[in-house]
Amino acid sequence: MLTPRPIRKLLVANRSEIAIRVFRAATELGIRTVAIFAAEDKLGLHRFKADEAYQLPGGGSSGTGPIAAYLAIPAIIDIARKAGVDAIHPGYGFLSESPDFAEACAAAGIIFIGPEPETMRALGDKVSARQLAIAADVPVIPASDPLPTEPDAIKAIAAGIGYPLMLKASWGGGGRGMRPIESEDELIDAVSAGRRESKAAFGRDEVYLERLIRQARHVEVQLLGDAHGNLVHLFERDCSIQRRNQKIIEESPSSVVTPELRKQMGEVAVKGALSVGYV
Asked: 117 and 102 in contact (C-beta within 8 Å)?
């Protein structure tokens, strides 16, 4: 972990509304802001909301597309060094859950606004996070380890958990790589499609299977931990209203969570995060 120091200049490694919201907060705190943008986003509003803006290599006529530009760790670090920033905020999506990006920031002497790389590796990988949750006595639902490549082995794992199933990407979020699977007839094609989508979105193709809970509520517990061992939960938000597995509305407090369940969820979330030293 880098020694804490004042943040006077901040680069946001993201785009659009995500970046604009961080720029607004930074400006209110008297922090100068730096935007990055792909060639396709040269007219993007976030470029003009920052104090400085720099174009990322690739994209445009190169045919790599804008997503690849925002995932280019060396290019982003190079811009951050040249701009003389103190810290990088990743926003959400893109590199926000990349331990490699957090390590690259640390190696460049730049503060990464987010968890430590070791924590990100432990919790960013959903399979690893599940194993840590079990060790911390946090309840989980039946699921697999990362799936092998052999179809017969995948079928055996699926049968052991029981249908219906949900396929998920081990890394990343935003609904990428997710597929409901009702029967063995759908299994192998769904796994192949999920792997491709995960690879395109997160640069990794590990996927796993989880028991599908029909008509589930998606309720998250928000956590805040500092570098001195203090960790609290900020209660829950209900993210059940979704389109294509991506949240549309986040409501807090949840209308379906009872006071007793709220207390229980908060306590187990804090216990799980404390077990990995979450900051």
From this structure: yes
**In this predicted model, what pLDDT tens digit does every residue of 145-196 receive, in sequence order?**
999 999 999 999 999 999 999 999 988 777 788 899 999 999 999 999 999 9
The span from the CA of 12 to the CA of 117, in Å, is 18
What are the C-alpha distances in Å from 176 to residues 35, 165, 219? 25, 16, 19
Residues 20, 49: contact at Cβ < 8 Å? yes
Per-residue pLDDT band at 94 (split at 50, 70, 90): very high
Known catalytic residues are 247
What gap in Å lies between CA 28 and CA 22, rounded to an integer?
10
Residue found by looking up tokens 């209660």 in the block: 235
Say if residues 253 and 236 touch (Cβ distance below 8 Å): yes
The predicted model scores a pTM of: 0.74
